[in-house]
Design goal:
The chain is an all-alpha fold. It is built from 20 helices and no strands. Helix 8 packs across helix 15.
């Protein structure tokens, strides 16, 4: 992948070798798919970041299981968008920021770069905040010190890039595994209400203005700009196809990777809302609107161990999403400017504003709100560019979107952008209902 050096680790060489065997038909079944798994798990971290925690927990505590269908719908939409991003990097050999620089007017490209850099920095605000809060509640560390520790840990995790793509993918996969296990434990410890919850996966419900606002928040905040940019870089020159037939085979394997990665993220989000519905809503604990309230409310309801598991999952989410968000900042900066910038400079530019914000003592809730505003403003550009580029045969070749897929992706793009506009209006106290 283009975000790492050309040197390949032993794990990389093994993945490429086994990938070639799968493409030649000498590996079948699960063994054939394994070499191609990884990029979507990295991108999926954006869907289990601390911002998702707050939205899912608030929705579950207020409306129980009634908005589970919204989480499922949002995840299906994310599968389509992330599949397009993965396919773009594979078919073109370039990531989305590079293609914007190559095919758009210079003034437009520069404008997109500035907006995208702000989005990458805003992404790190939410991610660093989640990890810093977890460190504060677990060990009593001041918030700004936790931000510095998160920055150092993020830099250390990203240093695995020098070893190739596989070590970093495995590390992020490990973090997602920790998050998934933690929420499996939380769901098991929560009061058993599975039969009550399952119908709400497929039965739409919007009972009042509050539920509509939360549904808008869940869907509107599902697709993050940095995940769209990054996924195209993760598949770019990973296992390079040698023929059009290999290109189509790799695309099929990558589609499985996207389905797996987004499914894991979706199940974690469903578990979050289920836990909030079973533990908070069903027990009459009132509306839980922030992470601090969730942590303090869990302990008397489910015991100290449940609160501790919640913090471990939040820490894993914050650390992994900080690393992925910073990596996305690298891809964005390098792709849009078109010349080499030292990796350390790219990382520091993305991370430093967040550390400064928290060191200045800015209210964490306000910092999180404004980070989401920036992300909502930045979202239309990558989505529109993605749909536009993936329909062009001069860029995609045989993997250009058929008309029906372009129509579906365009519909999802219009819906997500529209919901983000409603989300922005609600942040500023303006609602249409």
């Amino acid at each position: 992948m283009a975000v790492v050096s050309g040197w390949m680790s032993k794990a990389d060489r093994k993945a490429v070798r086994e990938g070639r065997l799968a493409l030649s038909g000498k590996r079948r079944g699960l063994r054939a798919v394994l070499p191609f798994l990884g990029p979507a798990l990295v991108a999926a971290v954006a869907y289990v970041d601390p911002g998702n925690y707050a939205t899912n927990i608030e929705a579950g505590s207020l409306y129980g299981f009634r908005l589970l269908w919204v989480v499922l719908l949002a995840n299906l939409m994310a599968m389509v968008i992330q599949n397009l991003s993965a396919k773009l990097g594979l078919a073109s050999g370039h990531n989305l920021p590079e293609l914007c620089r190559m095919h758009l007017p210079k003034a437009v490209s520069v404008g997109l770069w500035i907006i995208s850099e702000l989005a990458a920095m805003a992404t790190d605000v939410a991610e660093f905040l989640g990890a810093s809060l977890a460190l504060q509640w677990l060990f009593g560390i001041p918030l700004w010190v936790g931000a510095v520790i998160t920055g150092v840990a993020t830099y250390a995790m990203l240093s695995l890039e020098r070893l190739g793509f596989r070590p970093f993918e495995r590390l992020i996969g490990l973090f997602i595994g920790v998050i998934a296990v933690c929420y499996l434990v939380e769901a098991v410890w929560s009061p058993g209400r599975w039969r009550e919850a399952l119908p709400h996966l497929v039965v739409p419900w919007l009972g009042d203005a509050g539920s509509l606002t939360l549904a808008v928040g869940i869907i509107g905040a599902t697709v993050m700009p940095h995940a769209v940019y990054l996924h195209s870089g993760l598949t770019q020159q990973r296992i390079v196809p040698r023929s059009s037939e290999e290109l189509r085979k790799i695309q099929r394997f990558q589609r499985m990777d996207v389905i797996l990665g987004m499914s894991v993220a979706g199940l974690v989000n469903l578990a979050m809302m289920y836990m909030a519905g079973a533990a908070f809503h069903a027990q009459g604990s009132g509306t839980v609107t922030d992470l601090a309230t969730a942590y303090r409310t869990l302990e008397p309801l489910l015991g100290p161990a449940a609160a501790w598991v919640f913090l471990v999952s939040l820490l894993a989410s914050g650390l992994s999403s900080s690393a992925v968000g910073t990596l996305a900042g690298q891809v964005i900066m390098q792709g849009f400017v078109g010349f080499r910038i030292p990796v350390s400079v790219r990382r520091i530019i993305t991370m430093l504003p967040t550390i400064v914000v928290l060191a200045l003592g800015v209210d964490p809730v306000q910092a999180l709100v404004w980070s989401q505003v920036v992300l909502s403003l930045a979202l239309p550009a990558p989505l529109i560019a993605l749909v536009s580029f993936t329909r062009r045969r001069d860029i995609m070749g045989d993997l250009a979107n058929p008309p029906w897929l372009t129509s579906l992706a365009a519909t999802i793009t219009v819906l997500v952008i529209g919901l983000n506009i409603l989300l922005l209006l609600s942040v500023f106290g303006i609602t249409a209902w």
